[in-house]
Amino acid sequence: GESVGLHLPTLSVQEGDNSIINCAYSNSASDYFIWYKQESGKGPQFIIDIRSNMDKRQGQRVTVLLNKTVKHLSLQIAATQPGDSAVYFCAEWGGGGSNYKLTFGKGTLLTVNP
Amino acid sequence: GAGVSQSPSNKVTEKGKDVELRCDPISGHTALYWYRQSLGQGLEFLIYFQGNSAPDKSGLPSDRFSAERTGGSVSTLTIQRTQQEDSAVYLCASSLRSRDPSTDTQYFGPGTRLTVL
Question: What is the mean pLDDT of residues B3-23?
Answer without folding.
Answer: 98
